[in-house]
Amino acid sequence: MIQEETKKATYTIPVGPIHPALKEPIRLALTVDGEEIVDVDIFAGQVHRGIEWLGMNRNNPIQTMYLAERICGICNICHPFAYALAVEQAAGITPPPRADYIRTIAAEMERIHSHLLWAGVAAHEIGFDTIFYLAWRVREEIMDLIEYVTGNRVTKAIFQIGGVRRDITEEQFPRIRQSLDYYKSLFDQLKKVFLDDKTIQMRTRNVGILKTEDALKLLTCGPSGRASGVPKDVRQDQPYAAYADLNIKAMTPDMVTGTVVGDVYDRIIVRLLEVKQSIEIIEQCLEEMPPGPILAQPKTAVLLKALTQAEGEGVGRAEAPRGEVIHYVRLEAGQSTLATWKVRAPTYVNLMSVPTILKGMQIADVPIAFASLDPCMSCTNRMVITDRVLGKKSIMSYAEMRHLSLKKTEKLRR
Amino acid sequence: MELQTPEKIIDSFKTALGDGVINAKIYEREVAVKKNKFRSLWVEVKKSAFRDAVEHICHLQEYPHLAIISSSDLGAEVELIYHFTIYYGHHLEELSLGLRVKVPKSDLKIPTITDLIHGAVFTEREIQEMMGVEVVGIPDKRRLFLPEDFPEGVYPWRKDEKGPPDDMLRVLPGREQK
Amino acid sequence: MSLKAFKRALWVYHLNTGSCNGCDIEILAVLTPRYDVERFGIMLVGSPRHADVLLVTGPVVKQMVLRVKRIYEQIPDPKLVVVVGSCGIEGGVFYESYSLAGPVDQIIPVDVYVPGCPPRPEAIIEAVVKAWVKLEKAEQGVR
């Protein structure tokens, strides 16, 4: 609440939509009272490319698979995964078990790469550029592995309705195990760099807190929700593909610290634990991989005909590195495009918790608090924040906000 | 909180809503090598019983998770499906519940549920701008994804005359206009 | 094309006009120790007023048109524009969508195109070096 409205002026700070560090266009306008943030408003829509309309009007269902891949370049496996699950449910196709295991391995490799990417960007927002370069250098190992298994670094195109397009043969296993051993040996070092560093603790402890009840009310999912004490994980609750055979437990920060606070530090803990969990899942999948075919229907023309004549609806849910992805597909007989397609990415719901996280914070904490949610705007379609202005209007660019963030780190180090 | 079976849940819907329930079905699938079975529920209700249905779901679980509202243009009516999940956090126990409600285009309105579920505001704003469904009582009426200068009355997900007109589509040179 | 022609460092500004981030993470990967473009003097800057080269990704979404033009005007001459990814060249996968305002070269003049979805980091480095050589030649008055 703002007392003394005539004396205290509220400034509106629009930030963005061009983000100097990386990534998506995002514009923030915060109402601040001195240094403290009072209110935040959310708009969205700058990465809106009309993908659902394209899927319903222009593409046939198999082409839409590759369109779904380009919803986001970072969460590149989870969107085709959920889409394939939805179409398979609608058309009544069951992928063979070997395809399920290969899909799981690809999804876990993507999780490792995405969390390491996030770790670098989060360090960059605090000002530790050395860790940024270190994390991304370490990430190159998993990118090499992804290229070895699927053929490309970023857009992998390994999914097909009814299975996968490429097989992982026995000769490839030793190379995969070699990369996993490399990451296992590095894990303790990563933990030390991120969790034991005093400056990181000072910048992230009690910053950007989201309480458990707020997380439940605002439907937060993914690592941000787990860090706030909501143990919700699609791989644990309603497993799909090979996760149904494995016993997955949702990672929560009390496994390391004993309590749940719901701040940025807890989110770092959850993501690091998930990297370790992903390595173990890939190893288990390699050991238990069943033999057999990789596609339910290898001939694409026959598959396309079957899909055009299928009728039904399906819901596909997958666990992306950022949370729960859900696709709804409805097929109508005789229609060459999808009748209805609805995509929901995890950042869509996680964005609603941004006002709660940022209220009461200082401006210098905005970059790290916002980045700790791991927003993927191209999945969501962006966010713009504006607000009411009571007093003078001042404009601060994102570069200046980040500069404040760096200065705070320097002050803490002294 | 007691975890009920899908059949019991459907019975509790019928008891609470009476003839507000039009139909209900359970879909089952088997997954992977161990062939675990997973079930999901689809319940169709009348528009008049819609708010009671959502309140009933809130009784089944304290904070149900609303994933998204999907909408399909079926000609004379618009079908909205509210995708809920309940019993999350329990290994192998989560249930997907799809609440289906058909709204005629002559009276394209649906009441809001943001007082029961705070996180529903984004998805209600989206169906307002993309499908033209008016959500009565929504706390925030603004557009979510479309730009401010997008023409009024054009709804991208519609298949009838209100969809995007051909001159809004950016077609490659040399490619015939569909 | 020899390294002796490079008389100064090249500063690059990155602009995302609605892409899926695939090209953006490959551009950032170019800075990291594996490909390490900074040893050539190529650096990513935070403000268009310091930049020589503009790297654009993404199909231009209608909301981003004015901003693209504004950023282009803020970059001081001599400047070059490099479009990374198939989206900026002709819309890529999104070619018929109602929310696109056309490929980048209909909004600002473009010098180098890098096709790919996304292009490999090696291709991006080659594109920036080609742009560099073009800039040096333009400064020396040679076309």
Question: How would you explain this protein's 3D organization?
Answer:
The complex is a heterotrimer of chains A (414), B (178) and C (143). Helix content of chain A is 48%, strand content 11%. Chain A is mostly helical and 414 residues long. Chain A folds into two domains: 10-46 and 349-366 and 380-413, no CATH class; 58-209 and 234-248 and 277-333, Cytochrome-c3 Hydrogenase, chain B (Orthogonal Bundle), CATH 1.10.645.10. Chain A is globular, with a radius of gyration of 22 Å. The two termini of chain A are 34 Å apart. With 178 residues, chain B is α/β, with parallel strands linked by helices. Chain B is 19% helix and 31% strand. A five-stranded mixed beta sheet of chain B has the order 1-2-5-4-3. The longest helix of chain B is centred in the first third of the chain and has 12 residues, at 6-17. Chain B is globular, with a radius of gyration of 19 Å. The termini of chain B are far apart. Chain C has helices spanning 22-31, 65-74, 86-90, 121-139; strands spanning 10-16, 42-44, 53-57, 80-84, 112-114. A five-stranded parallel beta sheet of chain C has the order 2-1-3-4-5. The interface between A and C is large, with 41 and 39 residues.
Topology:
The complex is a heterotrimer of chains A (414), B (178) and C (143).
Chain A: E1 10-15, E2 28-33, E3 36-40, H1 51-57, H2 61-69, H3 78-91, H4 97-126, H5 129-150, E4 159-160, E5 163-164, H6 173-195, H7 198-204, H8 212-217, H9 222-227, H10 234-237, H11 264-287, H12 300-308, E6 312-320, E7 323-331, E8 340-344, H13 346-350, H14 354-358, H15 366-371, H16 377-380, H17 398-413
Antiparallel strand pairs in A: 1-2, 2-3, 4-5, 6-7, 7-8
Helix pairs in contact in A: 2-3, 4-5, 4-11, 5-6, 6-11
Chain B: H1 6-17, E1 21-31, E2 36-45, H2 50-60, E3 65-73, E4 77-86, E5 95-104, E6 109-111, H3 121-131, E7 134-136
Parallel strand pairs in B: 2-5, 6-7
Antiparallel strand pairs in B: 1-2, 3-4, 4-5
Chain C: E1 10-16, H1 22-31, E2 42-44, E3 53-57, H2 65-74, E4 80-84, H3 86-90, E5 112-114, H4 121-139
Parallel strand pairs in C: 1-2, 1-3, 3-4, 4-5
Helix pairs in contact in C: 1-4
